[in-house]
Design brief:
The N and C termini lie far apart (about 65 Å). Strand 7 and strand 8 form a beta hairpin. The strands form three sheets. The chain has a nine-stranded mixed sheet with strand order 3-2-1-4-5-6-7-8-9, sandwiched between helices. Strands 14-11-10-15-18-17-16 form a seven-stranded mixed sheet, with helices on both faces. The protein has a two-stranded antiparallel ribbon with strand order 12-13. The chain is elongated and about 80 Å long. It contains 14 helices and 18 strands.
Length: about 450
Amino acid sequence: MLPKALTIAGSDSGGGAGIQADLKTFAALGVYGTSVVTSVTAQNTRGVSGVHNLPPSFVAAQLDAVLGDIGAAAAKTGMLATAGIIAAVAGKIKEYRLERLVVDPVMVAKSGDHLLEPAARETLRRELLPLALVVTPNLHEACALTGQEIRDVADMERAARTLHGFGPSYVVIKGGHLEGAATDVLYDGRDFRYFKSERIATENTHGTGCTFSAAITAGLARGLSVPEAVSEAKDYITTALTFAMDIGGGHGPTHHLAPLYREAERYRLLHQLREAVALLEDEPGLARLIPEVQSNLLAALPYAENPGDVAALPGRIVRCGDRVRAIGLPTFGASRHMASVLLPAHQLDQGIRSVMNIRQGPDVIAACRRLGLAVTDFKREDEPAEWSASPENRYREWGTTACIRGLGRVPDVIYDHGGWCLEPQVRVFGPDPVSVARKVIRINRALGRTGA
């Protein structure tokens, strides 16, 4: 049976924050979500145009209905607009003895609209924070609650100590508004823990705070400890921001189902690789395009960052008579060398997610040009000293990056001229492995019967 989690928050008619974001997050993380609506907002990605706060008595009635029947292994609060609503929620939290409570002190929307009455802040501090297992303010909310200025991590630590003094067992101050890496600080009254991630370059951050606190709540509902739940939530929100959606004319939402989408994409990529391999194995005469070091066909997940995000054939593609055969089933992390070619191309153009290496020769290059493919090349001797001095032998990565930047886009074909103990090769790029396989087949057929 699925663990149950409750969100007590406002409704976002745009679907990116509030109740809607929380329920999507619960579902994505394997938790059955229930909800108590505190306010109804008229809002979209540009801002909030109207707010209707529900009577505290009706908020309490919803809590009775949910907790008196379904219950909750963990709960979170979001937008609690008035002192009356906060008092009603705090009373029911105590009545039903909810111990795993995450308080996200929502005060201001991403657009700058105020969502908590200034007079209600003291009620929040006095009545709700002492009931919280975890409180998750962003920098602005932490400043408002503590009266302290926060400019760096040291200030975050100081504010966390102050907030802990209000009663919550754990404090998580989110550092998304600071410069540099996105660092969140967790404090348990004794020790600090730091959760860092690279900053995602996106304007589509609507609902980030709601989603993060909901992810912590989901982890707690599944029995994780607070540090474990925060760590999982950090990974989850980073993925959701990486895949954030460009919806509306303002700040678009994070992608709450991104982890599920990414996992589904793994299976789709493996299927595409098998389909592409079948095309290659059916092509007569393709063996002449296999270099001495053999070939491989790679496919990357969206926003791939390392070889573990790239699928390939562990045994490569080898000659078998005048045809080719793939050795082994496609798997992720199977080719670090060719991943060093695909990853820089993918990072410079997110639409490029596949590559295959084939034999280099004047006949192959001429065939590529006859087909109208965009072709460029690099020479090992042009590699800058700072690259050639690397013990990791990064000339493939350098050459790929240099060619793409010089051309201003990722071409169909990049080839190198080889070097000492380095066989010259052609790399064929495309958006997916099937399109790359078809390009390679076209090159093979363009060679004609006289190809070597």
